[in-house]
């Protein structure tokens, strides 16, 4: 399992899914439910994609404002969009 | 043969000597091989005769008995085995002879008789045990010539003793007789007598070598001990609580760093004063462990100076009711210090230092406060003493308090704070207003609280921060720290939302377990999975290979699919 991958961004990203963390959080939230074996990986996948979308949105916002740095306003706006979009799509 | 005639009335000694002289390892074999039958007959007769007579001295049988198997081979055997069998003679010799001598020859004897004829070999071996001494010359040269020589000498000596005590070593002789490796066994016997003791002795230390169990420091008992030992020297006090030596060592530099900022720490000084008071008792015993009185002294001096600065500042800067409580708190501390010093329970060294500097710094405020607050502070002090009660000791406690303020092991702090704050407020309520307590408690609470829920938050935070880092990676742009915090919040909300959705999906399917189908449905609703983009595609894109193997069923050799569907 690749613990980290060296990216061109000089950042080392952990590709491993924190399965224990996910399972524990799910248990805390819904103790009466169980997670299947591979389900937590898919949960991790969904979180990854969510974060990905958030990042894209916030980057777009920051670029629109011509800021070199992502501010919390950008992130907040992006979060609103993403969550609204999710809710809308679910409906 | 001439031997026969001469040996009609042999003494054991002469017999044995003859045996030794005629040492010929090969003779028995040769002769036996030549006269197996004769030997057997001879052997049988001696054995029978052995049963009859076990006396040592006999004329006829002696030569044969004393002789080794080789001797038996001698023609003598035919007629001279009536009275005493060689075997019995040898037995007796063995009995009288020291074990060591017996042992050597036995080991030596054993290999020699072994290859010989079986029936005679048995008896020979049995005889060999008694015959140890005799056959020495025989087997021996091939095996252990070195042993033979000493053995011979020993034998001769034993011969003299041979007549004296037969019964002494009966048990010893019996064993070697029966054992094939008699010599070795007897030697082992000797050793065995000793060896059992050794392992036991070894075992005991092993069992006794239990890891010293650390006894948790009992605050109450410790404090009482501290009180009792009025002469608590710094070393003793400091050494007692070992576990906390290190943290305090680390603290002292921190303490020093914090102290040099009295200017803007005035407010904090007052807080510290109150907090010190409450904390001093608790942390004192623990703080005392690290043996660095010098640092404490220095710290205390600094602290006193800070206080000295603080007192006039507080008195001047703060006005109204705030002054009194603050002053009370400060005064109490000063009072305590004075009391402690007066009691002489504090470290001698500290006393001196504090005495030198303390009075200078403390006297002033005391002069302000003593009259008004003496009684009240005393009461408060006394009330607090029993609680915290390390005050008796210290200066180290006092110095510890600023240390605590600056940096302290959190695990110590919260406990101490809890202990001290809880009892402190009630007695301190009369004297201390809520004001000094509040800032102190407010400041102190985060620490104890941080420790309680820490196991919950920290891993949770670390898990979320993991995704936050991914966020910053995906963004490909520098980010603010606060933006990351927002990302974490969003992630938290998203996770809760996700759990609820999954629960709904599973309930819809009548299940209590979340399955990948639920997840796929979720992602479909999110718009991630479409008819064009399947879940597997997403898995392939975003997850590492190992996870992909787990999630996407793949056909393997042997008509097997993993993961199984």
Notes on the structure:
The complex is a heterodimer of chains A (91) and B (565). By secondary structure, chain A is mainly alpha-helical. Helices cover 62% and strands 7% of the residues of chain A. Chain A has one domain (19-90): Histone, subunit A (Orthogonal Bundle). The longest helix of chain A is centred in the middle third of the chain and has 26 residues, at 39-64. Chain B has helices at residues 2-6, 12-21, 26-34, 36-52, 61-66, 69-73, 86-96, 99-109, 118-128, 145-162, 170-178, 182-194, 197-208, 219-228, 234-240, 245-258, 266-281, 283-288, 293-317, 323-343, 348-387, 395-406, 412-421, 425-431, 434-444, 446-451, 454-475, 481-508, 516-526, 535-542, 545-551, and strands at residues 513-514, 554-556, 560-562. Chain B has a two-stranded antiparallel ribbon. In chain B, a hairpin with a 3-residue loop joins strand 2 and strand 3. Classes of the chains: A mainly alpha (91), B mainly alpha (565). At the A-B interface, helix 1, strand 3, helix 2 and helix 3 of A face helix 27, helix 28, strand 1, helix 29 and helix 30 of B.
Estimate the helix proportion of chain B, in percent: over 70%
Structural class of chain A: mainly alpha
Please, what is the oligomeric state? Answer: heterodimer
Task: State mean pLDDT of chain A (0 to 100 scale).
Answer: 79
Q: How would a crystallographer describe the biggest sheet of chain A?
A: 2 strands, antiparallel
Question: How is the CATH topology of chain A named?
Answer: Histone, subunit A
Number of helices of chain A: 3
Strand order, main sheet of chain A: write it out: 1-2
> Low-confidence segments of chain B, ≥5 residues, pLDDT <50?
36-44, 56-79, 106-118, 120-133, 139-149, 175-201, 245-438
- Low-pLDDT sequence parts of chain A: 4-8
Described by the principal axes of the CA atoms, the overall outline of chain B is elongated
Structural class of chain B: mainly alpha
Radius of gyration of chain B, in Å, reads: 48 Å
Radius of gyration of chain A: 16 Å
Which two chains touch over the largest interface?
A: A-B, 58 and 61 residues
The proportion of strand residues of chain B reads: under 5%
Strand order of the biggest β-sheet of chain B? 2-3
pLDDT averaged residue by residue of chain B? 57
Family (chain A): Belongs to the CENP-W/WIP1 family.
Keywords (chain A): Cell cycle, Cell division, Centromere, Chromosome, DNA-binding, Kinetochore, Mitosis, Nucleus
Subcellular location (chain A): Chromosome, Centromere, Kinetochore; Nucleus matrix
GO molecular function (chain A): DNA binding; protein heterodimerization activity
């Amino acid at each position: 399992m690749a613990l980290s991958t060296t990216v061109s961004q000089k950042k080392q990203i952990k590709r491993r899914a924190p399965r224990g963390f996910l399972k524990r959080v799910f248990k805390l939230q819904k103790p009466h439910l169980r997670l299947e074996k591979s389900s937590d990986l898919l949960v991790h996948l969904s979180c990854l994609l969510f974060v990905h979308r958030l990042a894209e949105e916030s980057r777009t916002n920051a670029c629109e404002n011509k800021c070199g740095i992502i501010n919390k306003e950008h992130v907040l706006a992006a979060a609103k969009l993403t969550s609204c979009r999710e809710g809308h799509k679910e409906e | 043969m001439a031997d026969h005639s001469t040996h009609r009335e042999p003494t054991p000694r002469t017999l044995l000597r003859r045996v030794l002289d005629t040492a010929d390892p090969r003779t028995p074999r040769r002769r036996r091989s030549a006269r197996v039958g004769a030997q057997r007959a001879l052997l049988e007769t001696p054995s029978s005769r052995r049963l009859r007579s076990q006396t040592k001295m006999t004329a006829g049988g002696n030569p044969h008995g004393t002789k080794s198997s080789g001797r038996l081979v001698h023609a003598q055997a035919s007629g001279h085995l009536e009275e005493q069998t060689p075997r019995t003679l040898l037995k007796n010799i063995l009995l009288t002879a020291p074990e060591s001598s017996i042992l050597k020859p036995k080991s030596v004897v054993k290999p020699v008789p072994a290859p010989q004829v079986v029936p005679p070999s048995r008896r020979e071996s049995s005889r060999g045990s008694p015959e140890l001494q005799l056959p020495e010359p025989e087997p021996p040269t091939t095996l252990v010539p070195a042993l033979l020589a000493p053995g011979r000498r020993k034998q001769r000596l034993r011969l003299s003793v041979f007549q004296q005590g037969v019964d002494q070593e009966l048990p010893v002789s019996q064993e070697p007789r029966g054992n094939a490796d008699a010599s070795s066994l007897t030697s082992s016997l000797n050793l065995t007598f000793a060896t059992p003791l050794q392992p036991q002795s070894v075992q005991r230390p092993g069992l006794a070598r239990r890891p010293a169990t650390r006894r948790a420091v009992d605050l109450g008992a410790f404090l009482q001990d501290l009180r009792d030992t009025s002469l608590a020297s710094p070393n003793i006090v400091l050494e007692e609580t070992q576990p906390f030596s290190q943290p305090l060592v680390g603290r002292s530099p921190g303490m020093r760093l914090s102290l040099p900022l009295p200017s803007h720490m005035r407010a904090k000084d007052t807080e510290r004063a109150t907090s010190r008071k409450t904390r001093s008792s608790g942390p004192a015993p623990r703080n005392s462990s690290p043996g660095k009185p010098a640092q404490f002294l220095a710290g205390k001096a600094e602290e006193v100076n800070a206080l000295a600065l603080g007192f006039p500042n507080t008195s001047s800067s703060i006005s109204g009711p705030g002054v009194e409580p603050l002053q009370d708190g400060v005064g109490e501390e000063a009072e305590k210090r004075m009391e402690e010093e007066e009691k002489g329970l504090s470290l001698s060294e500290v006393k001196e230092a504090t005495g030198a500097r303390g009075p200078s710094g403390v006297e002033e405020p005391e002069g302000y406060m003593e009259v008004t607050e003496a009684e009240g502070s005393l009461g408060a002090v006394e009330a607090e003493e029993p609680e915290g009660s390390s005050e008796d000791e210290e200066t180290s406690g006092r110095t510890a308090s600023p240390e605590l303020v600056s940096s302290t092991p959190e695990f110590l702090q919260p406990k101490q704070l809890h202990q001290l704050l809880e009892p402190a407020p009630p007695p301190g309520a009369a004297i201390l207003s809520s004001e000094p307590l509040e800032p102190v408690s407010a400041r102190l609470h985060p620490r104890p609280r941080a420790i309680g829920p820490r196991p919950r938050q920290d891993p949770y935070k670390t898990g979320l921060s993991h995704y936050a880092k991914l966020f910053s990676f995906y963004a490909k742009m520098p980010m603010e720290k606060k933006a990351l915090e927002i990302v974490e919040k969003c992630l938290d909300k998203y996770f809760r939302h996700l759990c609820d959705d999954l629960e709904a999906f599973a309930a819809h399917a009548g299940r209590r377990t979340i399955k990948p189908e639920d997840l796929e449905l979720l992602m479909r609703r999110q718009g991630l999975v479409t008819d064009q983009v399947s879940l597997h595609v997403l898995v392939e894109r975003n997850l590492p290979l190992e996870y992909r193997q787990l999630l996407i069923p793949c056909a393997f050799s042997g008509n097997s699919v993993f993961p199984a569907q």
